[in-house]
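Tutorial, part two.
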Amino acid sequence: MKNKKNAYKKPIYIRATGIIRHPGAKITHNFIGKRVSIYNGRLYQSFNVLRDMIGYKFGFFITTKSLGPKIHLTANKKKKLKKK
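Running the prediction step on this input gives:
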């Protein structure tokens, strides 16, 4: 019989500290009114936790991708823009 992976993922709960490295963690009542910093893969983004945010994950409130016209440029086009 093959070993099948369990589809259920255990929820991640973190102590109510200021810095959070895992954006998949759920916001609990311990975080209300606190300022937290969440790592998005490049830098830490901070925000205040409100009562309406309970039950959501931290990653829902941070941006992980840069937006704008420069994200679609190739390496050669980026070099040309730097020279100008």
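The CA atoms of residues 16 and 30 lie 6 Å apart. In part three we will examine how such features are distributed along the chain.
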